[in-house]
Each structure stands twice: as structure tokens, then as C-alpha cells.
Amino acid sequence: MRRAFMAAAVAAGAVFFASAALADNEAGMYGNTVVCTYPDGATTKVYLQQGGSYTVIRGGQTIQGKWVDDGTNVCYTETDPATPGAKPVCVADKAWKVGDSWQVVDPVGKTCTSVLMAGHQ
Question: What is the pTM for the complete model shown?
Fold first, then answer.
């Protein structure tokens, strides 16, 4: 009986940890908008899609990109069109919620303040 109980407890723990490892911290961004505001007042809007793609609206230009979550950081790379000399933007892998804000260094090295806004803005 004790062995059966221990086996059940171990199995339950394995399921719990496997579920936690598979959690999608970006889920709060799907259907919402990340608005990144620069010191000069200019803004960039980012729309994340499930499955690793995103769209950026910057200076009237629409840019497509890919994102990858390695469990520690989420890195965003603009792909179409790719900005010459641009670097991936990496931020902490965190379950952001509407209203949260954080600092970002964009692909060309400029800093902006990002805020997660409800819906598509």
C-alpha cells in the first residue's frame, strides 16, 4: 500500500513539473499589444502570435519576426524585412500581464519603455 502511495505521489509530482515546464509565459500577450515608447515620444507596437511569430509596426512600416523562448529569456528577431545590423531583442521569460511595463533595448540599440496593453491598439 505504501509503495502504491509513493508511486502515485512521484507520478503526480512528475506531471506537475512537466506542466510547469511547458507553461506558455507569452500567452498573456496573444491578442494584446506591446507598446514601446521612446524618450522622444515615438512608439512601436508589437503583436505576438502563438507559435513563434510576431508583427511590429514602427514608423509606419510593418515588420515580421520570429520569437523563441528558451525558458530563461524570450528573444525576438526581425525577419521581413530584416534591419541591417539589427540584433535580437531578448527579455526575461516572464508571464507578463496587461498593465505591466519593462525596459527594452530595440534591435538598433535604442531604449524604450514597453507596456502590455489590452487588445489590439
Answer: 0.77
